[in-house]
Amino acid sequence: MFEQIERVPGDAILGLIEAFKKDTNPQKVDLGVGVYRDAKGNTPVMRAVKDAEAQLLENEMTKTYIGSHGDPRYGQAVLPLVLGEGSPVLEAGRASATQSPGGTGALRLAADFIATQLPGRSIWVSDPTWPNHLGIFPAAGLTLKKYPYVDGNNRLDFDGMLAALKQIPEGDVVLLHACCHNPTGFDLSRDQWGQVLEVLKERKLLPLVDFAYQGFGKGLDEDAYGPRLLAENLDEVIITSSCSKNFGIYCERTGCLIMVARNNEQMENIRSQVAIVARENYSNPPAHGGSIVAEILHSPELTATWREELTEMRDRINSLRRDFVEALKPYGLDEKYAHVAEQKGMFSYTGLTPEQVDRLRDEFSIYMVRSGRANVAGFSHDNLPYLAKAIAAVN
Ligand code: LMR
């Protein structure tokens, strides 16, 4: 039976990790998968995480199941982080948290929930979007459609986006990136979020907000502007949040599906359905990542350390963006790539073509996604001169 099965190419983003490992060029640069890197190119364990793990080692009493919604302490900590301390949505008991295996797991829960509980609705994603969105929703049986996000000059096409949203059939689901848009790095302004909200209301669309990079754009609260605005002004919102990135616990797969309903009773109804979806996928989420986050966010000292470390990471990324543009100045390319300094988060849609990306890999051992997306955290003061020279060579 198995002889009929064809081999397929691996995931384009994850495949870069392997290709990079195999490359023996000492000057190689990894701008592929979205993980934070420090000045030495390492992805260190955060101090707050190490401390929390030490406490867990000391105090953990059991490894028993934590239930389909995960550790309640994790949910209690993530809800105010995402929706805001004292959020009216929380006060009204309208929001439910379900711990998930990473933000990807939360997306799959959302997809299965929509497929089973809201059948017949299509999901609309930005063009471009995180390539895995294109896989997750159809895998759950949903029809996936696209709205424009970037224009021909490689800039945010907000007018095109808004015009397209106005045409979406009533009741469909619209996926929005809360901040640090992956792959482009182009985020909506507050005013633009306000305009999107009006269209969502008018067209009775259900927003699904993917919130994978909270704290990497402008700040923990600033980055949450969009999801909070929608949750406070709409009856129903789905948010998929991740702590894998902002706590640097990628391999612990630490996400959360947040369902916002009209009132507490409807929230409990939805919550009961989400538990079934989780049960049918993996039963209970793995505990360790959620325990780390809960340990940190329930301790004022650890929270302060973590916030400080996250701010360092954000500031470093933002200064690398400016330094990248500066490094291109001697080649007369600073204006062409000026947008890199303005984008937000880990990623930059550089505007490099797939052919240029191939040449950078083959001739310079510089690895990035073929769409031209670079992980800005992979820049460093050591590799920027080399990168600038290579980019000039392929321009
Ligand atoms: C990325 O886009 O690089 C990250 O979200 C990691 C992944 O799973 O693709």
Automatic annotation (TrEMBL):
Residues 27-391 form the Aminotransferase class I/classII large domain. Pfam families: Aminotran_1_2. InterPro entries: Aminotransferase_I/II_large, Asp_trans, PyrdxlP-dep_Trfase, PyrdxlP-dep_Trfase_major, PyrdxlP-dep_Trfase_small. One of its GO terms (molecular function) is identical protein binding. It comes from the Bacteria. The keyword Amino-acid biosynthesis does not apply. Gene3D superfamilies: Aspartate Aminotransferase, domain 1, Type I PLP-dependent aspartate aminotransferase-like (Major domain). Homodimer. This is Aromatic-amino-acid aminotransferase. It comes from Halomonas halmophila. The lineage of its organism: Bacteria, Pseudomonadati, Pseudomonadota, Gammaproteobacteria, Oceanospirillales.
